[in-house]
Amino acid sequence: MWIVRQAESLVRRMARQFPAVLVTGARQSGKTSLLRHLYPRASYLSLDLPAHAEGARTVPEALLADYPEPVIIDEVQYAPSLLRHIKARIDGNRVPGRYFLTGSQVFSLMQGVSESLAGRCGVLNLHTLSRAELLEAGRGIEEPRYIYLGGYPELHVGADPELWFPSYVATYLERDVRNVLRIADLPQFNRFLRACALRTAQVLNYSDLARDTGIAPNTARNWLGLLQASAVVALIEPFFGNRSKRLIKAPKLVMLDTGLAAFLAGFRSARELAASALAGSFWESHVFGEITRQAANRGDPAPVLYWRTASGPEVDLVIERSGATVIAIECKWKEHPDASDSAGLRALEAAEGKRVKEKIIVCRTKTPYRLVDGTWVLSVAEALERVAAR
Fold first, then answer.
1. Calpha distance 353→332 (Å, rounded)
2. Sheet of 99-103, strand order
3. Where are the alpha helices (H) located in 266-312, listed in sequence order?
4. Cα dihedral 341, 342, 345, 346 sign
5. How many CB atoms neighbour CB 12 within 10 A?
6. pTM of the model
7. What is the pLDDT of residues 116-126, one digit of tens each?
8. Which residues contact 219 (CB under 8 A, 6 or more apart)?
């Protein structure tokens, strides 16, 4: 049974405007399945196969001639030189919807796109399934269970997570890490992955991360850059509003899929995760992930930031909107937050004044309500509706 992806309408809009559409994202996030579902009559060329990748590098024109348009070209990062030939074909005929591309390693891939297909290609970053997509598909899943399991599509169509996650991590290490960074000590990189998972939703300190993994800080930067490029982690940059205040400048590290983070952190059940000291960090990662998925699926470029002063007050997520306004969001792993939980939101409002258009605490409440300081207390679903409306 197909689970409808919220990004489907955006892909169709791009295909009506651009000659090429590129869908990027983590491995196994559903990129190929999405395109083949939307365009079942399109030709299909997978550069994941060594023979096809070699043909794309050595006889690109002959290879492209064998696949009638529209054509889906999978894992195009394995032959980035093919993009130049696609550009030449597009320049000869700007009809939209000719090429549909997928790729997993975003940095190297995006460099090729920016050089070859600028103005000719729509780009979508496809995340793993959101809980909203699962609920809309009639697959009821409790929020703690979703946080533990995550959104990789295979896990929601019958795959055993105890078998799937180890295979995913091993495949990721062997194919992406070894090919890109030539890492010889894979167990050491595995420790690095686990250290990142244990730090989800925390301010990043490269020195601490490197020390705990037994590597140099520059190596930690390079490895984290690869995880970011592969859509495994995200870095939330700090929000700078009132520049007279001294603010924390380091980014915050977030694992984009809480299920992968839970596996790497060693949790073996939703109950174990919910009872742990990391429940609050995973809840914040979940809220960030749902907001990020919704924004990407809508083509919304508004950045998600965080705010923290050197003296202590902080706000988990700050979303910039048009007109220099912001929505401030605090994430709480509880059902009934009170005024003490909105202290950071009030501090940001005091610093930024009317720029703060809305203050929200996202928690596990069953019923929305409002605190005396005007802060809304909402569930994730209710917060997503409010963010989308702004």
1. 24
2. 43-46, 71-74, 99-103, 20-24, 121-125
3. 270-274, 279-298
4. negative
5. 14
6. 0.93
7. 788 899 999 99
8. 210
